């Protein structure tokens, strides 16, 4: 029970006043006496007005004291917390990848284990069972984007059905967006409250989102956890002739648990065990492990032998590129930084000088198309006019192309805010401010999408045009300081790897649910994602149909939602099997840190309080009703003359 205002105690001074009135009250005794005693009236009046007489036990006195005490108690505003007292409850349920971690109920007693989301479901069912009649629920799922499952729903069967249907989402989690939506849904709603079910392993700020209503966090976090994650894994062949024993594998493993872990890493090639290495990693530390002399294989799998509390990061896959170093034709008037960065990728770079103007070149001076088709063409600056026709135009159409700068009206940037989309070209980049002052005003083709914007204006876009990769920078390197930045070699390496990905056995690694570019065969009429290995296969993930763009298979596909090794299979007319591509789908790497110790912080009225979800229920009205009843009883007592 609580008190809203202790100032109401001042009105308690009325109680001694009532008692004092009874102490000073004239008291008469009706007595039959002979008439010659009438002279004693004066003496009786003197006795009746004598103060501090003995306080007699009178019912009317006690009733008046009770009324005064009840009124004082009502003025103090007494209340109690009522579970589920709010009419509208907004439930935010965390379904991010870390909710797939094991939750052990009463671990010391060896009780059963479920994942954290299953435990949350039990907690949610227990909470909604306590809600009163007429209560409404809004169920908000925290996943790659906020998703409203129920909106002010009062049907209990619908509540339980929605709770049963919740599943873990392994992609990027929209933490701030979900909280902001919950705050907006309850703004200026005095009958609402918010309950957040989560393991509190959030990778974004939450304390700057203000709530106007009570908020409570129900946590499934456990202090003792174990998780060894494979953060990076790759293979590379040192020879170009496909010799056996020429493959090297490198992996980075990190211990996200709170105890030292000792385990073995097993490396498989096409399902066959190739090597094993034991490792010991302290809590919070990482280790780099190398494997030498591996046999050639199409797909390599690295697995943690010991089971831990979070399975999605216990396996990683890698694909061996074929054909050796890519050959690049650099069409440029001269850019030493770009040429050196391309060479650092291990590529064979051939530069074609375009410093001569179109007026200085006649038909006889047009360069001859190279006999060997390059793997990638890089165009630095404006492309000469003779590339728009003949054999050169045909070569550009059929070859992965990277364009930097070119013709077009320039737009001056008003601010340097950079927004980067998830794409293989932009991975591992941390560009904070704009490298240029202006961008080329160019309409983005329908087959492409922006991968970097500066000041809200597209600066880079990429896509697949007729099965060939296309990458465009809407600025020239010489117009800014990008070549001088430490991120430039990483950016060039990412670009070369992505443009040359068509030669690889796989498409690399992508987060669950992310967009992936796939070179789709023009004859393909049917496609699907098939689980091949890893977490997806172990958990019985179903096949996922490919997305269509009208009557054709789209080159932009959404990666499957469950981590593991998937194969994108294409079929032509009469079910003829066409080219296929492997893709490693991974859970969001930040979710591997299931040992985060920072609790979820919420700002606002009643936030983070133990009783926040319970609503104060006032007794004032019930006390007022009781006072009225007592007054009626008091009036009856007075009417019967029992106060004398």
UniProtKB/TrEMBL annotation:
Residue ranges constituting the VWFA domain according to the UniProt record: 89-200
InterPro entries recorded: Aerotolerance_reg_N (IPR024163), VWF_A (IPR002035), vWFA_dom_sf (IPR036465)
TM annotation in the entry: 6-24, 59-81, 619-638
Record-annotated Aerotolerance regulator N-terminal domain positions: 7-78
Keywords, ordered alphabetically: Membrane, Transmembrane, Transmembrane helix
PANTHER family documented for this protein: BLL2463 PROTEIN
Entry protein name: von Willebrand factor type A domain-containing protein
Native species: Fontibacillus panacisegetis
């Amino acid at each position: 029970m609580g008190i809203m205002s202790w100032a109401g105690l001042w009105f308690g001074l009325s109680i001694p006043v009532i008692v004092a009135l009874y102490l000073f009250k004239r008291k008469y005794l009706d007595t039959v006496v002979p008439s010659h005693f009438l002279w004693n009236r004066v003496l009786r009046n003197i006795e009746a007005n004598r103060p501090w007489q003995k306080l007699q036990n009178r019912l009317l006195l006690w009733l008046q004291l009770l009324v005064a005490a009840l009124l004082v108690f009502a003025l103090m505003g007494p209340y109690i917390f009522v579970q589920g007292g709010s009419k509208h409850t907004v439930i935010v349920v965390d379904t991010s990848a870390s909710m797939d971690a094991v939750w052990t109920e009463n671990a010391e007693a060896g009780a059963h284990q479920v994942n954290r989301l299953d435990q949350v479901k039990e907690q949610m069912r227990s909470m909604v069972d306590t809600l009163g009649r007429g209560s409404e629920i809004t169920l908000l799922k925290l996943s790659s984007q906020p998703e409203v499952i129920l909106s002010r729903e009062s049907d209990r069967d619908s509540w339980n059905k929605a709770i049963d249907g919740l599943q873990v989402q392994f992609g990027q989690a929209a933490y701030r967006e979900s909280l902001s939506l919950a705050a907006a849904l309850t703004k200026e709603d005095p009958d609402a409250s918010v309950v957040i079910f989560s393991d509190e392993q959030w990778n974004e700020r939450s304390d700057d989102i203000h709530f106007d209503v009570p908020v409570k966090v129900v946590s499934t976090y456990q202090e003792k956890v174990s998780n060894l994650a494979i953060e990076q894994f790759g293979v590379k062949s040192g020879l170009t002739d496909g010799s056996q024993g020429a493959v090297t594998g490198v992996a980075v493993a990190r211990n996200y648990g709170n105890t030292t872990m000792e385990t073995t890493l097993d490396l498989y090639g096409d399902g066959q065990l190739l090597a094993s290495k034991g490792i010991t990693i302290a809590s919070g530390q990482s280790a780099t492990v190398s494997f030498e002399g591996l046999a050639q294989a199409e797909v390599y799998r690295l697995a943690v032998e010991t089971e831990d509390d979070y399975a999605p990061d216990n396996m990683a896959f890698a694909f061996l590129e074929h054909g050796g170093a890519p050959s690049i034709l650099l069409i440029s008037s001269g850019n030493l930084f770009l040429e050196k960065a391309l060479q650092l990728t291990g590529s064979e770079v051939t530069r074609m000088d375009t410093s001569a103007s179109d007026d200085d070149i006649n038909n006889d001076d047009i360069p001859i198309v190279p006999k060997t088709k390059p793997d990638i063409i890089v165009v630095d600056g404006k492309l000469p006019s003779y590339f728009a026709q003949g054999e050169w135009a045909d070569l550009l159409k059929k070859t992965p192309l990277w364009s930097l700068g070119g013709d077009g009206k320039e737009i001056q940037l008003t601010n340097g805010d950079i927004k980067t989309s998830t794409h293989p070209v932009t991975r591992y980049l941390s560009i904070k401010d704009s490298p240029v002052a202006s961008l080329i005003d160019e309409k983005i083709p329908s087959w492409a999408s922006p991968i970097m914007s500066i000041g809200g204006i597209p600066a880079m876009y990429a896509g697949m045009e007729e099965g060939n990769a296309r990458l465009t920078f809407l600025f020239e390197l010489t117009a800014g300081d990008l070549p001088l930045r430490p991120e430039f070699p990483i950016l060039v390496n990412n670009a070369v790897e992505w443009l040359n990905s068509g030669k690889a056995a796989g498409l690399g690694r992508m987060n669950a649910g992310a967009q992936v570019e796939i070179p789709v065969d023009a004859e393909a009429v049917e496609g699907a994602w098939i689980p091949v290995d890893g977490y997806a296969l172990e958990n019985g993930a179903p096949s996922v149909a490919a997305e269509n763009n009208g009557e054709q298979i789209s080159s932009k596909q959404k990666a499957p939602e469950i981590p593991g090794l998937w194969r994108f299979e294409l079929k032509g007319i009469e079910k003829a099997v066409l080219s296929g591509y492997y893709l490693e789908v991974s859970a969001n790497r930040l979710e591997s840190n299931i040992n985060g110790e920072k609790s979820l912080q919420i700002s606002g009225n009643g936030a983070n309080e133990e009783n926040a979800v319970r609503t104060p229920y006032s007794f004032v009205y019930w006390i007022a009703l009781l006072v009225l009843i007592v007054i009626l009883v008091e009036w009856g007592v007075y009417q019967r003359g029992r106060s004398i």
